[in-house]
Amino acid sequence: MNARWRLVLLGLACLVLMPCAVSAIRAMPDFGADIAAYGARINAIAPAERHVANMVSAINFDIRGLDTLGEEFMLLAAITGTVVLLRGSRGEAITDRAARLPGRPVLPRAEVVVLACRIAGPITALFGLYVVLHATVTPGGGFQGGVILASATLLIYLGEGYAGWRDSVRSRWLDAMEGGGALLFVLCGLAPMLVGAAFMENVLPLGTFRDLFSGGLMLVENLGVAAAVTGGFTQLFLEFMEETREPDQSDDPKGEDA
Amino acid sequence: MSAILALLLLLTAASGTAVVLIREPRRQVFAIGLNGLILTVLFTALQAPDVALSELAVGTAAVPLLFVVALSAVRTASPSQSADPGDHTKSPEDA
């Protein structure tokens, strides 16, 4: 298909789709208009019936929990696919030792970088845990906290080097966290059916409004999402970085702090 | 719409255009990170802290890092071909 036919196709598509887009855009509410009806309804329901202060978590884990379950498995499938692609050439042989490409320069890092990472890493991890645990109270939740936790492990990489990072992050643990988190979410859906409730119905005690322990089943689902996201994203980083190294060249003790 | 919102929207448009116009991949990574940071501030100004947190974590930390690592992997694979990184637009398929 050459450039002229592409332009013709673009013109035809614009002719059909542009009126639809214009009519849809004209029907949108004005910028900064009042909260939509759905938002007002959620604001009324969530604190009263779920004892939850963070409406986004209430929607994600309870009111539209089934959608989040689907997203959870989309994430699982995407990361599994990426890992399969990246491991393609070297197979399933994963090692916990840091591999190093021969001839790759070992860049020395300044002491101030190491110090900054050793200070910022634990603080970042603590903040990630805070965001995960306070999902039903303050903005954030399993996904955001999970990505923050995963980036906290990256500060280990920046401060201690690749070998130090691989010493502290185990690939099989990450697999277990990713799969186990998704499994926990599914079990949260199925467990209420054992006591005769609907799929993912919130049967646990709801706790106190604005308390850390509020929201009942949402807290468990949130932990599942946090584990899956932390494991998944760290696994993704690990596989991408492993891609820049070759696994069978690791018998070089001088390169251990690469 | 207040002045700060207008400013942030303009900055978002400018930084998004910059990501497209910068052709050197490694600089593009930083442009993406900056765009993510501006989007984070914009979402915060629009009172969407949840989305802002996600954007901050994914848009300014995870995505740029994956690009940096992928770029370094490409450079490791073929050091002889990476001498002229701006030349990839002239591939024979475009003729």
UniProtKB/TrEMBL annotation, chain B:
<keyword id="KW-1133">Transmembrane helix</keyword>
<keyword id="KW-0472">Membrane</keyword>
<feature type="region of interest" description="Disordered">
    <location>
        <begin position="76"/>
        <end position="95"/>
    </location>
</feature>
<feature type="transmembrane region" description="Helical">
    <location>
        <begin position="28"/>
        <end position="46"/>
    </location>
</feature>
<keyword id="KW-0812">Transmembrane</keyword>
<feature type="compositionally biased region" description="Basic and acidic residues">
    <location>
        <begin position="85"/>
        <end position="95"/>
    </location>
</feature>
<dbReference type="Pfam" id="PF13244">
    <property type="entry name" value="MbhD"/>
</dbReference>
<keyword id="KW-1003">Cell membrane</keyword>
<feature type="domain" description="MrpA C-terminal/MbhD">
    <location>
        <begin position="11"/>
        <end position="74"/>
    </location>
</feature>
<feature type="transmembrane region" description="Helical">
    <location>
        <begin position="53"/>
        <end position="74"/>
    </location>
</feature>
<dbReference type="InterPro" id="IPR042106">
    <property type="entry name" value="Nuo/plastoQ_OxRdtase_6_NuoJ"/>
</dbReference>
<dbReference type="InterPro" id="IPR025383">
    <property type="entry name" value="MrpA_C/MbhD"/>
</dbReference>
<protein>
    <submittedName>
        <fullName>Uncharacterized MnhB-related membrane protein</fullName>
    </submittedName>
</protein>
<dbReference type="GO" id="GO:0005886">
    <property type="term" value="C:plasma membrane"/>
</dbReference>
